[in-house]
Design goal:
This protein folds into 2 domains: 71 residues, no CATH class; 55 residues, no CATH class. The chain has 4 helices and 4 strands, in the order βαβααββα. The radius of gyration is 16 Å and the shape is globular. The chain starts with a strand and ends in a 7-residue tail after the last helix.
Length: 127
């Protein structure tokens, strides 16, 4: 869990609820971290992370930062998921209007997003 519970009231609630839910799933390793410390850890020891659960603002920033470890935003997929309703799958790089029409866009992020959607939402691991 990544939050800013040391200064944000909403993060305090987020952390309290996450800790309660984590107790219901003792077989899953659970850790919490402030967003600024998580940013440093992503750069210094990215292998320490498997899944990051956070709110949208922090997730947007951390995913861009983590993508730079691979050398490009153009390869990383993302998912936004809630308790109910459909999940949103998208490349984290955004629309890149500065390169539109130039034929230089890297399609890997979109391909990886679709692959994640097929796996996560449609249980199609065979594709």
């Amino acid at each position: 869990l990544v939050d800013k519970a040391d200064v944000l009231a909403t993060s305090k609630l987020w952390r309290r609820i996450a800790n309660q839910v984590a107790k219901e799933f003792p077989e899953i390793s659970f850790d919490s971290c402030y967003v600024d410390a998580a940013a440093m850890k992503i750069i210094s020891a990215p292998e320490k992370f498997d899944v990051i659960v956070t709110e949208n603002l922090f997730g947007d920033i951390l995913s861009d930062e983590a993508a730079q470890i691979t050398g490009s935003l153009g390869t990383i997929p993302s998912i936004s998921r809630g308790d109910h309703g459909p999940a949103l799958y998208e490349p984290i790089h955004g629309s890149a209007p500065d390169i539109a029409g130039k034929g230089i866009a890297n399609p890997l992020s979109m391909i990886n997003s679709v692959a994640m959607m097929l796996d996560q939402s449609f249980n199609r691991k065979d594709l």
